[in-house]
Predict the structure of Phosphatase PAP2 family protein.
Amino acid sequence: METLVPLLGAVTSLGDPGFVVAASGGLIAALLAVGDRRTAVALAAAVATSAGVTAAAKIGFMASSVAAVHSPSGHAASATTFFLCLGAIAAAQKPRAAAVLCAVFALLVAASRVALGVHSPGEAVIGVAIGFCAFTLFRKMKAPRPILGRGPVVVCFAAALGLHALIGEGVAFEQPLEHVAAALGRLAR
């Protein structure tokens, strides 16, 4: 297992908020550049919804002291949201293999969170469910056939990887959410 930790860390970083925000921002910019405002707005709404629901779920579970779930996986939620949306955009122009590959990335991120011992399987499943709900919102809002080609998608993904490598894993939301949950827990007692 120790030899897999670096690989699992690389996979899990694809769900890090720093990566997802950078990749989503690049993809939104690419969509706007080709005139697909509707899909750009849909992606922004899906990513924001995923982040908001994840934060609320984390606070709710932390405050409620549910033994089986402490903190739904934000990495799983954000990776599921981003990669399913990316897959839907790519599949509009290319074979469905792109959508399947993106779904595999999302599931690998969720599995990596469990394998690294950061989350329980239940917490990862809740994260995937949140991401899938945000993706459903995206599907309802996006243009029927997004007009973004493969080139801009590759450029935004490469830029996001580069930006994330520069910034690193420094985006930490868990501790502030724990403080809010603790305060709410005290109020509830």
